[in-house]
Amino acid sequence: LTNTSISDAQEMETIWTILPAIILILIALPSLRILYLTDEINDPSFTIKSIGHQWYWTYEYTDYGGLIFNSYMLPPLFLEPGDLRLLDVDNRVVLPVEAPVRMMITSQDVLHSWTVPSLGLKTDAIPGRLNQTTFTATRPGVYYGQCSEICGANHSFMPIVLELIP
Amino acid sequence: MLRQILSQAKKHPSLIPLFVFIGTGASGATLYLLRLALFNPDVCWDRNNPEPWNKLGPNDQYKFYSVNVDYSKLKKERPDF
């Protein structure tokens, strides 16, 4: 009563093996192409370095002159009405819209992760390594993110704020 | 061994496409893994040369497939040191 020797409708079996396989290959190849396209260098207008520390970020704009500043979370006592607790910082990263930007991200001490979810960005900041991410923001506004790799006592208190100006 | 495989394949011909696709997928995955292990600049096998990633060339392509960018034709924008 076992089915080890039952063999029926072999043509159908062949067709419904080959046809889904071909369909899946036709889905996979353009998908892989798109995946590699997201990695392309899009000829950025400028480059910003983002260095993670415990527990703040340092941003360096060194393409045209040297602007280097730290970005600390605003402590609750310093918040104005309307500010976002745990999200607002003292110095925001100011960028123009419609300009391809290259972010070079690293860390000075432990692992951090530079994230801006509304722009689809998350890149780990690894000490001793330089990671790169590129993006082009199309809408002006303020974009928030939080450090996404556990880095110690104040890991939840080192947010990232991007201010995109038209 | 090969003859045994061929005779069994003739007995169940509808299974041949199955083995072809599964075999292609498995060998593709293995080969890509080997490519990553041997050619990825992040990987280091030689204890005597611990940082091969510091010797990357600016015109080499390390990606598996590059859609628009031709790495051998990139022009050099940075100064010589």
UniProtKB/TrEMBL annotation, chain A:
It holds the Pfam family COX2. Its cofactor is Cu cation. Residues 43-166 form the Cytochrome oxidase subunit II copper A binding domain. It catalyses: 4 Fe(II)-[cytochrome c] + O2 + 8 H(+)(in) = 4 Fe(III)-[cytochrome c] + 2 H2O + 4 H(+)(out). Keywords: Copper, Electron transport, Magnesium, Membrane, Metal-binding, Mitochondrion, Mitochondrion inner membrane, Respiratory chain, Translocase, Transmembrane, Transmembrane helix, Transport. Residues 1-42 form the Cytochrome oxidase subunit II transmembrane region profile domain. It is a multi-pass membrane protein. It is found in: Mitochondrion inner membrane. Component of the cytochrome c oxidase, the last enzyme in the mitochondrial electron transport chain which drives oxidative phosphorylation. The respiratory chain contains 3 multisubunit complexes succinate dehydrogenase (complex II, CII), ubiquinol-cytochrome c oxidoreductase (cytochrome b-c1 complex, complex III, CIII) and cytochrome c oxidase (complex IV, CIV), that cooperate to transfer electrons derived from NADH and succinate to molecular oxygen, creating an electrochemical gradient over the inner membrane that drives transmembrane transport and the ATP synthase. NCBIfam families: CoxB (TIGR02866). This is Cytochrome c oxidase subunit 2. It comes from Pongo abelii (Sumatran orangutan).
